[in-house]
């Protein structure tokens, strides 16, 4: 199939306690040439190599293959060279469309009119698998049959899925293997600090309200009072969106948006999030002190990972990221693309002025100079406020931000914000022609796609601004996936992908080489995705006993630990 000498459909059953690596106990693999392999328990774990071919002339097929590759890693087996993940292919065939049965294996079968497995039996077997060993002889037979039914279903789906672009599909399968490596590694956590936070969490919240709300007066005990918040906003001249009912919009997205334009809002936003949504006990940390959870690759419409925010330390509030701490004699480094979305927009649109801006030391200040708003010798120190205004404009225009929103974010009066947008249109006309064509194409063809063929099907009444932003977000996701593959295949220990960055770990002696290799992988990935422009990378490293620091959360981290010291001192 697809020109390979052998194609094998395979599936594992395993237990995986929260934060731990999987413990496989069952495998069924069917070579399409006729042979089926069934291994269980000690017979499976005693095997040093998989019983099916995994070399360059062979193809393995699974549904959500990162789970199967994770089992390879747990067993000490080499990973397959060529992986076809039917979950990723089903997602790119249906992304954006409404699915009656979801995008699980059963949903994919039903989507193509194939007989699904008995949902009740499947749920019962899943519960049995989660329970784990030991199993009775009857349970073993049932679990092997259940595992084989998944293999049969996956094989049926393989034969029914139309027009698989195997080259691009193999690239997506390659990323699922990289995701397995990342999940296998896990993020190093300061477990002692986490335990301390959990032990004092209730008391911390009360003291945080006392400290932070002293400047706002919007809480009554632990209850946020809307009318007090409205009075504070009026007193400070901060405009605030309202719902159709006339009441203030109080969702976290609104608070986050307002905080960008009015930093005084941020402490209350963070406090409300901590009181209402933060669940420290949900963070999944294994016995080895590593935070592990499913990355949920390809779940987002843009193709980005979508891990659980409550389980993934990098999905938590910025201050909690300081729980990340390398082990003794180790370093963690955060390597991110500089101005990634601006660079992607410049390259894809072919706007030469925008490309020159990106290739300068500071794209946003260069934009201000190109627009005539800053002199040629301007610096970040001399024209910092102007730079921030042009930065907000440059990023907002990627999804067609209007003058009112730009005004709110920058603090400029609406006419000045409108003039700033006009300057962007005048400075980068090719970008705007391209951006308009993106929307026109999407509405005409009901589809957008990335360099490597990740699709978004446009249905209903789409938001044109989201369509404009899709090429930046989705091609950024392609870039991140490819960078993960290249870095891991070259020996770098990637412990987390983070939107536009890689978090890597190495020993003190090996870190310089790891950083160089990872940066080269990221730069190469940008050239491959964009076809020409190389995106720069920035690095921040933290050596044990230092901990990861996100400057947005540093003040809150220090405040929380000051409270803990007082609580432990009995004050």
Explain this structure.
This protein is α+β, with helices and mostly antiparallel strands. It contains 21 helices and 15 strands. A five-stranded mixed sheet has the order 3-2-1-4-5, sandwiched between helices. It has a four-stranded antiparallel sheet with strand order 13-14-10-15. A two-stranded antiparallel ribbon has the order 6-9. A hairpin with a 5-residue loop joins β11 and β12 (455-457). α10 runs antiparallel to α11 (266-276). It is globular. The N and C termini lie far apart (71 Å).
Give the overall average pLDDT: 93
What separation lies between the terminal Cα atoms? 71 Å
Helix content range of the residues, please? Answer: 40-55%
The number of E-state strands comes to: 15
* Unreliable sequence segments: none
Radius of gyration: 26 Å
What does the largest sheet look like? 5 strands, mixed
Report the principal-axis shape.
globular
Short summary:
The chain is of the alpha+beta class and 571 residues long.
Blueprint (SSEs and pairs):
Blueprint: E1 6-15, E2 23-31, E3 36-40, H1 41-45, E4 58-62, H2 65-75, E5 83-85, H3 86-94, H4 105-111, H5 119-131, H6 137-160, H7 166-185, E6 187-188, H8 191-213, E7 219-220, E8 223-224, H9 226-236, H10 252-261, H11 266-276, E9 290-291, E10 330-337, H12 340-349, H13 352-359, H14 363-370, H15 384-396, H16 403-410, H17 414-427, H18 429-445, E11 447-449, E12 455-457, H19 464-489, E13 493-498, E14 501-507, H20 511-530, E15 537-543, H21 554-568
Parallel strand pairs: 1-4, 4-5
Antiparallel strand pairs: 1-2, 2-3, 6-9, 7-8, 10-14, 10-15, 11-12, 13-14
